[in-house]
Amino acid sequence: MTTPRDTDKLIAAYLVDGMRTLPDRVGDAVLDEVHRTNQRAVFGPWRTRSMIKTVLGAAAVIGVLAVGGAFLLGQRGHPAVVGGPVQTPGASPSPTRLVSPSPTLSPAPRSTPTGQVTVARGFQTATRLADGRVLIAGGFTTGQAALASAEIYDPTTDTFTPTGSMAAARAEHSATLLTDGRVLIAGGTSGGPSLASAEIYDPKTGTFTATGPMTEGRAFHRATALAGGRVLVTGGDGVSRSALASAEIYDPKTGTFSPTGSMPTVAGALHTATRLTDGRVLVAGGGSAADGRCYATAAIYDPGTGTFSPTGSMATPRCGHTASLLQGGRVLMTTGTNNWQGTGYQSSAEVYDPKSGTFSPTGSTTASPAAQTATVLTDGRVLVAGGNEVTDQSLASAELYDPKSGLFLPTGSMATARTLQAATLLADGRVLVTGGESVGWNVAGPFLATAEIYDPATGTFRPAGAGG
To answer: What's the number of CA atoms in the CB half-sphere (13 Å) around residue 198?
Structure first.
């Protein structure tokens, strides 16, 4: 039986190897893809439209092959998001090994002092290290290949340079800075089922080593650093792409994951998890491909008891939204979509008050994207940038949320429209925006190999990685 991704592989093989890959095999793959269309729960928001594009594109290829004409390569979409937590020295939970770069899924990295990252990426993670540099890891690159490669952005030299590769090529994973300065990389997908594997990046050696694994495979989950150094992992898509209500804890002292209390409602994929000032964690929204819904429900995780309890619901169901901890302890929720098909985009925003356990409306954004980024600036304002609109178009626009007035105000736009990008607050207060996709939301790309820096002092973006 053809796997969900065989269509792309067979077409690519035909283009490379000519008649060694027969057109009738491509036809079989397309028929299998059509048969699977109404059976798979693999696709999140916007995947249905992308799947239709795949079937039509592949059918066109067969027609061209039959008459011996030119080739047309259709693109197939993939799951939806977003929006990322060290093993104590001496602890040896499992044999540790250095990880070699992947020879097949990681394009050869290169240093690029010309305004570009080393590899085009989307669904990647970007984590600010203790020394101020930024680790950018994994993701999908154009052509729907998951990446094992990673790179480092150094703001002092404004350059991107390669670093050691992960053991597994992965996208839709999580990355969490641990208290000892290392980074936990967990889960995601390499193009098939969700992964349970995890690994640790050590910035001192520039290498990844194995840890974990998680108790179950997860993609589009959330990982939140807790006080004391442990990491809470919540929800996501399971191995069969079913929405998960389960959660688990990573203990860096033992290098192991263990189950913790389940959430009262399914968070599934595209939810948010925010550590509050009192150490508890707010888990809100998310959705499930099984019933096509996004949820308005929210829950609070208490690390002291290891349990979740319900809290007030949002005014609007949200998937692919953002959650930002504001100065003073409230949490800002912005935009997203209210259904799993991605047709109910929101321009609304609301604020959660942990003292009352309730959400209340705040100013609306001028756009209504999902898969945008939201970054809390040092002055307390929130930079909301890019994202995907209902028209399947990426946005270059950006806004600033002012918690004092409760309003969203325009600021300078990015040079490039981006969806599925990563945004990281730098130590000097600027924001690094890397990668993403310039044309809507489709896991096959094309993804961007460019980066930009937002300067709050001027309200403008400029190219990053120019070596200056």
So the answer is: 33
pLDDT, tens digit (0-9, with 9 covering 90-100), for 417-466:
999 899 999 999 999 999 999 876 665 678 999 999 999 999 999 999 98
Closest by alpha carbon to 156, among 136, 137, 177, 132?
A: 132
User: β-pairing, 322-325 with 331-334?
Assistant: antiparallel
Could you give the angle at the alpha carbon of 415 between the alpha carbons of 411 and 417, nearest 5°? 90
Place of tokens 């930009």: 452
Please give the C-alpha separations between residue 339 and each of 123, 136, 299, 317, 424, in angstroms, as whole numbers.
21, 30, 20, 8, 28
**What is the residue type of 62?**
I
Q: Provide mean pLDDT across the span 16-21.
A: 38
pLDDT, tens digit, for every residue of 319-370?
Answer: 889 999 999 999 999 998 887 777 788 889 999 999 999 999 999 888 878 8
What is the separation of C-alpha 230 from the centre of its chain, rounded to a whole number of angstroms? 21
Full-model pTM: 0.77
* CA gap 53, 78 in Å, rounded: 11
Backbone φ and ψ of 205, nearest 5° = -105, -15
